[in-house]
């Protein structure tokens, strides 16, 4: 199988093949080394309109394809991604500032999503239900929704796009994918390439990089019936507002300010390791990152010192440089945003235990202690390598602190008493809870999603994808009685 060379598609969009976009092209600058990775083709509103009409026409045939045909395409895409994974990982590193380990893990997760999506086609697609006339068969069956608009972010661009694209296609839908311009190749072009190699019919998938105007055009398109959005809560509210006004189904996976609770009886080594990974993985630029370390006062000094030592051992730098263990933030604007929150936290009374400064896009891993609930670092989704620590005295106080956020994506609790942990978890306002683990955990077969400002109750993963990417249809069939 030929290698994947992004130079061949530089400046193009994918819509019934590779073609120039109406919005021109935009240079993608690597946050790691400052060089130009490639040029993203930009789709404008006319491209979205054309793509929507093409997708609607193609979906009519794709929705009637046999389940074996659809499964074969999904498994073929997984095989194609395995074959070009080295090139995809390299582009992920250059575009998003991912460390090589994170890029490899993301490709693994994307392959898992494709394989899991192939399995959706053999799940039960409906139910037999009784009707008053015993000679009539009544069935509730699932049918494709039509054309799905997918708007995906830059932080885990491949996985966060493909987890919607793959199940939507598997269930007989067409897709308009709008990746973030900053990661248009790893979060868009790579997906187009693996499906092209797998034999997906023309018109079923369109990749339309662009800014907010392009995303809004996808939402407003008369051809899209369902919108799957992953990104900030502010942008998600706008998507929900526009789509809701058009009576479209919306699946929102938004931000998080996730609580990491460490009880007095916790295994401290295990808790620190999980806390470090939760706050510093991918420079904290993950919606499931640990945003608030809530630590019992009896072990807080020891926890903070171990957290400081772990932060001090991290080496910021270009992800492709030997020895780098912490990459860059995505842009200068994001760096200034993170630094602004840290400075506000200090002004609010937080103590800087380590870090608190940056060199260009490379933000030092930062540990803040004595962060109270009114502190900027407690309230905000920082999206940077910052670990704020808040101390508590009682379990009830810990619960109040953990729930003192509009977000409700994920949480973790560390204690040796599992029964206690399960009881505590039941009272947490979070869509996902890890006991003695990290706040960052996802898999293709779980119900991924949050509540409150973290989402509108939709779930990605496993059989829950059926609820997002199909409609129910009630059918009655009279039979000939004997």
From TrEMBL:
- What positions constitute the catalytic site? 253
Q: What SUPFAM superfamilies does the database record attribute to this sequence? A: ALDH-like
Q: Which domain of life is it from?
A: Bacteria
InterPro entries, sorted: Ald_DH/histidinol_DH (IPR016161), Ald_DH_C (IPR016163), Ald_DH_CS_CYS (IPR016160), Ald_DH_CS_GLU (IPR029510), Ald_DH_N (IPR016162), Aldehyde_DH_dom (IPR015590)
Q: Which residues form a coiled coil?
A: none
A GO molecular function annotation here is:
benzaldehyde dehydrogenase (NAD+) activity
**Keyword terms, alphabetized:** NAD, Oxidoreductase
What are the EC numbers? 1.2.1.28
**Segments forming domain Aldehyde dehydrogenase:** 19-475
- For whether the record's keyword set contains Thylakoid, the answer is no
* Family the entry assigns: Belongs to the aldehyde dehydrogenase family.
Name recorded for this polypeptide: Benzaldehyde dehydrogenase [NAD(+)]
Q: Which organism is it from?
A: Microbacterium azadirachtae
